[in-house]
Design brief:
four-stranded antiparallel sheet, 129 residues, seven-stranded mixed sheet
Length: 129
């Protein structure tokens, strides 16, 4: 069973920076570099929402309007790892952040959770003064 492990969450003041990582375990017969990666978040009392996604080769990325220009998604297929660089953080970015993997080559701006088959356990991000 493929496992995804997020790290890098924490507490930061408004305007601060965090970098999340998502490491995928190596599973026989499965190729990380053939899969899309998405980042989602869920705040207390709210539905899980898409934040960003990246295509299997890293050539295409998409962002939710709320994070466009502040967050950057990337991946290193040699390390089976994806990243979410979060700059200019705001209190409304506070949530549990999840990475997810889907067995497709391309993602799209819909950031639909149904496109993703494997999920990490989540990492808490808290932005507060």
């Amino acid at each position: 069973q493929l496992q995804l492990v997020e790290s890098g969450g924490g507490f930061v003041q408004p305007g601060g920076v965090l970098r999340l990582s998502c490491a995928a375990s190596k599973v026989s017969g499965f190729r990380f570099d053939y899969s899309i990666i998405g980042w989602f978040r869920q705040a207390p009392g709210k539905a899980r929402e898409g934040v960003s996604c990246i295509s299997s080769g890293g050539e295409s990325t998409y962002y939710a309007d709320s994070v466009e220009g502040r967050f950057t998604i990337s991946r290193d297929n040699a390390k089976n790892t994806a990243y979410l660089q979060m700059n200019s953080l705001k209190p409304e970015d506070t949530a549990v952040y999840y990475c997810a993997l889907g067995p497709w080559a391309r993602c799209n701006s819909a950031l639909d959770i149904n496109d993703y088959r494997f999920w990490g356990q989540g990492t808490q991000v808290t932005v507060s003064s």
